[in-house]
Design brief:
The protein is of the alpha+beta class. The chain has 5 helices and 4 strands. A 4-stranded antiparallel beta sheet has the order 2-3-1-4, with helices on both faces. InterPro entries: Nucleotide_cyclase.
């Protein structure tokens, strides 16, 4: 098994981790969102994608604030993404936490697993505008 430092180095070298924050980058986010969509479809739960405008500091703050099982990633240089699986409801509790911590506006979309990855991304982006 690789040491965590070595694993992070390999992932950074492949462009999977954001070099400034160490958070998952766009490709890893898309992979994790796809896996989450598969899990929720299988388990009958939901997944929400929340997009938050923000810089490196915002991204790190959100990683420190969100639950450990939420994926916090750099979707774009000025956009942070949060992937959260939950048993019911929608992204409103996550959005409220984001607004409390950052005061930032958000865009989000919740799926039962029937939407494809790029559809979830598109709908979350559209709600941010």
């Amino acid at each position: 098994m690789l040491a965590p430092e070595l694993t992070h180095g390999v992932l950074r070298g492949k462009g999977l981790l954001d070099p400034r924050t160490g958070l998952p980058g766009r490709e890893l986010l898309i992979d994790r969102l796809g896996l989450a969509l598969t899990r929720v479809k299988t388990h009958g739960t939901l997944v929400s994608l929340v997009l938050v405008p923000g810089d490196d500091e915002t991204a790190v703050l959100l990683r420190e604030t969100m639950r450990e099982d939420h994926t916090v990633a750099r979707y774009e240089p000025d956009l942070v993404a949060i992937v959260a699986e939950h048993p019911n409801g929608d992204a409103r509790p996550i959005v409220e936490r984001v607004r409390t911590v950052t005061g930032a506006r958000t865009g989000w979309y919740t799926s039962d697993g029937t939407a494809r990855v790029h559809e979830v991304l598109f709908r979350a982006e559209a709600s941010l505008i």
